Amino acid sequence: MSGDGDARIVVPAESSGTIDDPNGTGGDVNSTDNECSISTWALSRVFRGVVVATKTPDEVAAPIHEWISSYESKESSEHDATGTNLGPEEWCRAATSGLSHEDSEQLVRAAIGVAFLREKARRSQHATPADLAMVWDLVRGAITHPMTTGPCFTASRSSQGFLAVPLCSLLKDGNIDELYRFHIWLPDGQRGNLDFAVHSHQAFAQSWILAGVGRDYQYKFEPVTSMEDATHAVYALSWADDKNTSTTYKTHQTSSTVVNTGKLGRTTRTSGPSVHTRDMSYYIPSAVFHSTEVAPDTLHATLFVFDSHRGFVKDAPVLGPKDSESSTQLRDPAGVTPAALANMVETMRSWEILMEQGKQHSERAEWEHALRAFNKALNLCASVPGFPNSNRYKHQVFGHLGNTNRRFGRYEHARDILERALAEMEPDGPERIEFSGELGVVYRHMNRLEDAKRAFEDQYNTAKRLGNERAQCRAVGNLGMVNYQLSGQSRGPLLDLATEQLTERVTSVRRLKAALDSHSSDPSQRYLLNTFTTWEMVGLSRLSLCYTARGEGEQAIKAASEGVELTAKSADSTAIAMSRLFYGRALLLDGQHQEALKQFNPPNGCTPAIALCKEPSEEHRSYLAELVDAGADMDVVDEQGYKALDYAVFNGDTATEMLVLSGLRQQLKDNVEVEIAQRQNEAKLRKGYRELFQDKLRPVLLNSNSNKNALQDLRRVYADALAEDSEKAARFDVLKFVRYTDFLSFGKIPRSSDKLPGSDGPLVQRFRSNTQNDGRSSDAADFVIFFSYRWINAGSKTTRDTPDDSNNRQYKRMLNAIANFLSLHPTVDGERLGIWIDHACVDQDKPAPGVAALPMIIAQCNALISLVDDAYHTRAWCSVEVMMVQTLRRSYNLHMWYEHVPSDSDGGTLREGPIDWQVVMKDKQLTYESDRPKVLFLERQSKLLG
After folding, report:
1. What is the three-class DSSP state of 274?
2. How confident is the model over 9-63, as pLDDT tens digits?
3. Phi, psi of 367 (to 5 degrees)
4. CA atoms of 588 and 629, how far apart (whole Å)
């Protein structure tokens, strides 16, 4: 048994049902299966293995054994139902309360994690992503805990190149009985001696992927007698520790050696590569020959078990060169500690989750959310010390950021990102294919067609050198489109070449689709099928342009119609809209005006006009002008809550904006110019908000974990951004506050126009920027509390211009809430405390800038206190404020949310706001229905705070 490789038979986390193997699947992939309990016997057994793996001293292990034994029945055994059975969380709670030293607790937590994984496998239950995350948290916590009483996790270099950390080692008669290990391939180029990559295991093996991508292959070995017929020889394996070298397995090895037995054979690959990614599981039967491949510049990590109870073969050799004698692998990890390895894997898991989120948002054309996720991933690469091969993973993010910024119409930014990445990249790196193609698309939208053609040629030639048929398919389609544009839609060699290339694109992608199993439940197969379908749709849509330019109207309609049909199951609303554009255009040029409008004006979602405004270019403006002339609807709202005008304004493309306005003027009936001005203002508000939050505030929040002054910095960045941009300053209010001491003495909720008693000075203070250096203090409040409350100005003695009743009930509740808050947080200095109240901090005579800035104001406040009552959560303004603070609290762990509950005896109490409160804005009430658009706008913006 080589004991050092992973391979074969993939069971993805998304699978359901069962399969005829020891690793069945089933269960909810989104939750931890707490029904899989751990018996006392199983935990005791696994803990014995943890003691061996960590060399835990007897004096440390004995009390833990005694504690576990206190839960056993006298006749407890593996299959005894009378003993104690607890879920992993219950065992963890018991360990916390029953063990006095943290070292002991961490060792038991590692044993609980391993025992849970053991039980899942033994019961043929598939470990869900949540299960695996829970197990990894337990194991990682133990590995990274600084042990002081003697236990020690150790790392060693395997013959396959990865580093292995034993977690639980149980041996029997010199052979592995059960062995659990943490495996990690570092992006350090060390992948062992490839001459000995093909190997087998004595014991049945199973692996659960923590991070990265691994590929493995299975082989058939047939004995032969002659050297000429042989490809490999059989090698016997032995292990060495500090005591001796033998075929007896050793948990803590100093080296392993393989020796040529003289037995020859021919090796043939029978399957592979099987691709393994995070949260997938697979198994390797005993004595099966296989090899594992991990790219030398990437990280890959697994939890791995050898379990002889599910299969064992004594003779499980390694295959190697037929003419060598032996090879020895030293186990020295070169100074890398298990804690460092665990931290690397945790960082990589976080990075992968963010990238996956970004890709999922991209597939649904949710570009703002995608941009947020990719920026977080980039921040991890830059901010986490020791991020493994950060340049390589940073480049991956750059590719997606280039694509996302291009989808936003931010072509210069996308170009800069992609050109920088390509300059730093190897000439034949696989990412170069994608990046050069994306850069070509950016150049094409910038009307730099010759540059685009060169980029697409680079994409095609690199793909051809690497033998990447998929990339060649994309590249030839890109070349066809740029040649179509260069042809000027005029008959000639370039148009003929474009038609030929786009035809090749369609033919090629259909060939790729045909090689897939369209009925497969494998997520990777489903993803490829969806991707190729989109490529086919794009190819057909572009081909219709060529047919139209050639005067072949029927062919154009047929190709574009086939493209629309392919979008039936697509989640990419932009791709659907573009396919409608080309089909409608072919119909329009064929004289079928009403049929064309059906394609241009879908009842909801992204329209062709919206899709064109997302990525403005000379080409897209020409199509947009055709839509306007045809009478296409320019006022449809997409699934993100935006209209064509919003995208045109956000991209800063005046020509596109003017085309949309021209279309709107044709549609609007009454008060046309007033309506136009209102729509322009709303679009500019949305643009300003996205720019301020995405570009200025979010980077500060993303780095907040290592910055105790993050909110002070956030206030400064926001104030500076407004001070430097007069247009934004006119649209968004600065952060304002009332000093707590002034609020306390004022006696009621103040109005924005109120002055300090006894002076002409303003009661409301402004958080000032660094650039406003006029001698006044710019940081008069270190801590700011935001009050969310209902206006209760009912009764004969009140007017609309006050939020309180005649008894100042809300004001008194605010004072009580502040007093309770200061008692809970004695480090908050009341002299440096600021209070944000809408009636004071939003200009009541000109409220629009204050309302528009509300999400960014809440982001700058340390705490939000809700004055709850029976009607609080029914009110739209209160609910949108709750939605904002919930999003912030979950995302950055900086903001506090309390609810103040009134009480007749002591004025009221504070309780933490529920983190899982569900807010549905469409059901919320407003005093003035005219406020509904403002609230819905803020609801959309609040989703971007996370």
Report:
1. strand
2. 333 333 222 223 333 333 333 444 446 899 999 999 999 999 999 999 999 999 9
3. -70, -35
4. 11
Sign of CA dihedral 665, 668, 674, 679: negative
CB 402 within 8 A of CB 439: yes
DSSP secondary structure letter of residue 806: T
pLDDT tens digit sequence for 163-205: 999 999 999 988 889 999 999 999 998 888 999 999 999 999 9
Token pair for 747: 């006696």
Q: Are 710 and 894 in contact (CB under 8 A)?
A: yes
Q: 535, exposed or middle or buried, with CB in 10 Å at 0-12, 13-18, 19+?
A: buried
Inter-axis angle of helices 523-549 and 469-486, nearest 10 = 20
* β-strand pairing of 203-211 with 300-312: antiparallel
159 three-class SS: coil
Question: Judging by DSSP bridges, how do beta strands 255-276 and 163-172 pair with one another?
Answer: unpaired
* Full-model pTM: 0.67
Phi, psi of 826 (to 5 degrees): -65, -15
Q: Output the CA–CA distances (angstroms, integers) from residue 61 to 39, 182, 838, in the order listed.
A: 19, 22, 61
Which residues neighbour 291 within 8 Å (Cβ) at sequence distance 6 or greater? Answer: 5, 7, 197, 198, 199, 216, 217, 219
Residue 35's pLDDT is what?
63
Instruction: Quote the CA–CA distance of 118 and 120 in Å, as a whole number.
Output: 6
Question: Is the model's pLDDT at 7 over the cut of 70?
Answer: no
Per the model's pLDDT, the better-predicted residue between 292 and 248 turns out to be 292
If you average pLDDT over residues 296-302, what whole number do you get?
Answer: 95
Residue 648 DSSP SS3? helix
DSSP tag of 799: -
577-589: pLDDT as tens digits: 999 999 999 999 9
Q: How far apart are CA 403 and CA 694, in angstroms?
A: 17
Other beta carbons within 10 angstroms of residue 121's beta carbon come to: 22
Distance of CA 517 to the CA centre of its chain: 28
Residue type, 372: R
CB-CB contact of 460 with 476 (8 Å): yes
- Local structure of residue 126 (DSSP, 8 states): P
Task: Please say whether the beta carbons of 810 and 847 come within 8 A.
Answer: no
CB 547: neighbour CB atoms within 10 A?
Answer: 20
